[in-house]
Amino acid sequence: MHKRVMDSGPAETSGETSIEDLMIAVEQLVRHVRRSATAGGLSTAASSALGRLGREGPQRLTELARAENATQPNMTQLVTRMERAGLVRRVADRTDGRGVLVEVTELGEEVFRERRAERAEALGQLVAELSEPERQAVRVALPALARAIQERS
């Protein structure tokens, strides 16, 4: 049994989209946009971690692992590889002399910006192919979903 966006009959006959159909569309969109970002030749995990550090700033390795849903040993290995590539560095935590933070380097920031620009270009090309009412719907719906996500965190 599928949840419907609106409960006024079957999606197939009423023009409504089921939640499952929306989920498939979101997955396709995310895959398409992620594939479009090639700067730095990063893995999905490295791209995600670099993006988080670029958006949120320096973090402890344990915080980064938790936020990225990774084990601490796996995140340690990933950060080590990213550090060797010059994308991140480990620095002392000024608020706790024993702690270490992972922060993005200048090169990492450049790769982050390039990847974001590539993803934005891919999304922009998709949106440009839509009709004006569809473009307007995307401009309203996507920020609304982002806001709902932010309010949950």
The overall average pLDDT, rounded, is 88
What characteristic shape results from the CA principal axes?
elongated
The biggest sheet, with number of strands, parallel, antiparallel or mixed sense and barrel status, is: 3 strands, antiparallel
Helix-strand pattern, N to C? HHHEHHEEHH
Note poorly predicted spans.
1-13
Radius of gyration: 19 Å
| Count of β-strands | 3
From the helix content, strand content and strand pairing, which structural class follows? mainly alpha
Count, helices: 7
| Helical proportion, percent range | 55-70%
Strand content: 5-15%
Give the distance, in angstroms, between the N- and C-terminal Cα atoms: 29 Å
Describe this structure in words.
The protein contains seven helices and three strands, in the order H-H-H-E-H-H-E-E-H-H. It has 153 residues and is mainly alpha-helical. Strands 1-3-2 form a three-stranded antiparallel sheet. A hairpin with a 2-residue loop joins strand 2 (88-93) and strand 3 (96-104). The longest helix has 23 residues, at 106-128. Residues 1-13 have low confidence and may be disordered.
Chain-wise SSE layout:
Elements: H1 11-14, H2 19-36, H3 44-56, E1 59-60, H4 61-67, H5 72-84, E2 88-93, E3 96-104, H6 106-128, H7 132-152
Antiparallel strand pairs: 1-3, 2-3
